Amino acid sequence: MKDQDESLYYVGDFPVPESPEPGQEPKPWGKTRVIGKPIPRVDAYERVSGAAVYTSDVTFSDILYGVVLGSPYANAKVRSIDVASALKMPGVHAILTGSTKGADLVWPYVWGKDKAKLFDPHCRYEGDLIAGVCAETPYQAWDSARAIKVDYEVLPFVSDERKALDPKSKAVEAPDKRVAKTEKYERGNLEKGFAEADIVLETEYRTECQIQTPIEPHGCVAKWDGDHLTLWHSTQGVFYIQQQVAEVLGIPLSKVRVIGRYMGGGFGSKLEAGKYTIVAALLAKMTGRPVKLLLSREETFLVTGNRPPSNMKLKAGVKKDGTLTALHFTVLGTGGAYESGGISLTDWLVRDLYTCPNVMCESTEVLINAGLTCPFRAPGHPQGAWALEQMMDSLSEKIGMDPVEFRLKNIPSFSQARQGNPPYTTTGLKECLEQGAKAFGWEEARKKTAQQDKDNPVRSGVGMGACLWFVGGGGPPSTIVLKLFADGSANLNMGASDLGTGTKTIMAMVVSEELGIKPDKIQVENADTGSTQFATRSGGSKTIPTESPAVRAAAIDVKRQLFQIAAEELKVPASNLALQNGEIIPNADQSKKVKLNKLEALKKRGVIIGIGYRGPNPEKKWVNPFAAQFCEVKVDTRTGEVRIVRFFAAHDSGRVMNRLTYDNQVIGGITMGIGLAMTEMRVLDHNETGKVVSRNWHDYKLPTALDVPWEIVSIAIDPNDTEANTTGAKGLGEPVTIPTAAAIANAVYNATGIRITNTPINPLQLSRLMAEHKTRR
Amino acid sequence: MLPNFSYIRVKSLQEAVEASQGGGTHILAGGTDLLGCLRDQIFSADQIVSITRLSALKGISQTSDGGLRIGALTTITEIAESPVIKQLFPGLARAASEVASPALRNRGTVGGNLCQKPRCWYYRGEFRCLRKGGDTCYALGGENQYHGIFGSDYKCCIVHPSDIAPMLMALGASVKVTGPRGSRNVPIENFFVLPKDDVRRETVLGSGEIVEEILVPKPPDGLRTSYRKVRVRLAWDFAVVGLALALVFKGDKVELGSMVLGGTAPIPWRSKSAEHVIIGHRLDAKISLKAAETSVKDAQPLEHNAYKVSLLRAIVEEELNKLAQG
């Protein structure tokens, strides 16, 4: 008997939630048994042991290795390409250029009315595609690519967006091709707002360009079977890659299968296919053999996206009582050589985070000869927060109000920037500020830093910042297929990718919560266009709020069918049945209970297939996550060395689905925010070449374990959001990195009295500012 | 990817010397720098001579006159953790402990550390710069935030990347070099080459010459050493500026002393003028400040690295004050 019991995969001694009537939304969970627990990842063993098959692990006996040759110039036209000797090199099977048959393809870069080409004869940024090579080994492919002779017409370049609008400087191409896009947002009356203010401040801020640089470089394996293409692709969304590849190659969606079950980080840089994807597919077609093409680390710094540099100016008016009267924000940004989101969402926090009746935001995106941007973990927001949250700090000082109190005074209950001012389903911003401040010991810490010994060259400071994330509520479509097998184990089939955030684990927990099955007895199959259902990309911190309600619905569908077949077998109405400990129990006569794996009907049919769809979001309401972060720093005022002592992060991301992955997101987001604030920046050679000089992990400095404080405390604020969706979860992955850099800058100001308006806060900048500060005093 | 080269793993130093004559040969010790250079095509190689099996070149021992002999293949970790180094020359142990990351310290050797190639991002990138046989230094007018403020002669403004070399120079160490014409001792002070003397070379090693060991003279009574490194992040980073101090105190007066700056010049940069300020004096706050001012007096900052002047001044003052206290 014991064996049989163990063969049943239930979690523990609790009844699973009741099923709603068909067509009805399930009620919000009350007390949860699995959801919210710190449960290790369901695929942890595979990931740690090396059993997980990542794109770079995919191999075939006849596999070839592909490489791409990129333009070495920031701006150049290709006159001619000579591949004759490169093709003759050992092991080389094929070389692909723009003149190869079938390679004259349109590439979806926006260039006015013109479309760019896959092999564009005008390479407007370093690394743009020149050729693809495949060979028996990656080394042979590299050697061959280097032997390709390209005749370039090297053109003047513009590498600094701050100079792009100067009529005397070079334009990316024609002199009128300087501005890619402008945006203006306005509400209220700015002039009136500033007239009403007691204090008006204006400051310029700048954040440097940050590169995602995930640990797993970008790449794919392409394999044709007849006219059917299979791609193993490191990506945040297999269905999006499928769509792009089908479109570029002009083949039906049914002929493209994309698989991306495991990935080693993306942070937005793997939302789209790259030119390399198509190169791999074409090389595989040319040779009739599978081709593996992984970009080198250096190439990923050139062509896979970035958080663009932002040049911001913020003018703000406030009354002495802490009422914000006007905000005027301008930003100049660049998406690189083509329009690509260089100003995207930079102004959103200014528009929507704090109550303010009079707001104007003006954004200009210019073109430069550099790699394109793409959404980088909370696009636009950390930059906007860098300006807004430092300005809030400055304003609070001017009016003599505590920065937390000042923010508490300006919390809106609705979205001011959206049409019709829709209310938020919940806003935990107040709780984030209050509970975060309390846990951090904010008031005492401020007192302590104010009273510290003036002669000590190492000074302490505390700072904070708040944020919202403009989406994070998820939404349809999503289709989940859940199979309950005759032994009580289950298979969860989901199209969405797990970026490494723990999506699979959390979805298994949702099934576990609803059906009582142990999470490790639930096999999650995901991110395969051939065997899972359509899902949108994992980005925008929307995967959990999008997928978890659909998974819940699928589990409920399974349960409903299970009760139906049990009802027939037990001759008891389905509405009188309960599921507990892997047993179906009739309410009226418990002696008739039957173990799930003893149900004859289930044994016979083998499986119950439940299907769940993501329902619509609440009408006329918005779902946003909110947060406040607090930190303490020590600054050596002699050298400008800054150490972060501790970080406290209070986040309202709705229901905590898994406390372990939740806290890990907080730690990761803060780490990335420390990178933006203190160590990371893309450096272009502005003087002679426009080339990227920081293209490896030595010159492009990610924070190391020693740069991140061991004391990072995550405070989860759960506002019990019953309207957002049926699980109450909101996005977390992006808000965790939004206010971090600004909080650090505010802490450094608190320590030193020096306002750091440009990233990164490192000894290069700070030692200079310290010296200037000393001279002024 | 890598150039085509032949590979020899030698059994004796003599064999290594014989194998290494002629151009295109490179010595493999820890390989942490060599492999990167080959992959990035900084230079080519016809032959790689691995000396990793030469156990005679490993380890730290005390010499009969009370100094130290450090074999060229001794790892950076061994130097950082050596009890005798910690006791006699804490500044040297400190400098070693600040190198790169644990993995690189476990693999990298002290001989390789002295012979490593510059980390200039133009030199390491796809730029045919002066040091690689081109006709221009891209850094002089370019992105020179991490470049030198001394000794470039406006030819090549690399900085020497080593943390250990400045400390060894401050300690008056020498390098025993073995080559086709036998062995010679080169004071570290004469081991490195300035751009004005030869912009293509970093050391005085001739063809076939190999660093065999490093000799550190006996510590004089009253020796105090320290190494201070400023960098952008706390691990896996080269010095933005570094400072190696070896001062001999008699009572509260500095009797002898040497001050070597790292991260500021193409070679470890000895600041004799600053040494003059402190030698023969009680090291009080005033003298420290004066020495700090003097150490940067001749600096020639470039467009983006003027911060190094104030940074250097700050750490010289700070470290001198610290050493004065014992």
* Biggest β-sheet: strands ordered side by side in the sheet of chain B: 4-5-8-6-7
Uncertain stretches of 5 or more adjacent residues of chain B = none
For the largest beta-sheet of chain A, the strand count, sense and barrel status come to: 7 strands, mixed
The CATH C-level class name of the domain at 55-115 and 159-216 in chain B? Alpha Beta
Helix share, percent of chain B? 25-40%
Shape descriptor of chain B reads globular
Oligomer: heterodimer
Kindly identify the CATH topology of the domain at 55-115 and 159-216 in chain B. Uridine Diphospho-n-acetylenolpyruvylglucosamine Reductase, domain 3
Total DSSP E strands of chain A: 28
Distance between the termini of chain B: 52 Å
Rg on CA atoms of chain A, Å: 28 Å
Rg of chain B, Cα atoms, Å: 19 Å
pLDDT averaged residue by residue of chain A: 95
Most extensive interface, chain pair and sizes: A-B, 42 and 33 residues
* CATH level-4 homologous superfamily of the largest domain in chain A: Aldehyde oxidase/xanthine dehydrogenase, molybdopterin binding domain
Briefly note the CATH topology name of the largest domain in chain A. Answer: Aldehyde Oxidoreductase, domain 4
Strand order of the largest sheet of chain A: 3-7-1-14-11-12-13
User: How would you sum up the major sheet of chain B?
Assistant: 5 strands, antiparallel
CATH architectural group of the largest domain in chain A: 2-Layer Sandwich
Instruction: Specify the overall morphology of chain A.
Output: globular
Structural class of chain A: alpha+beta
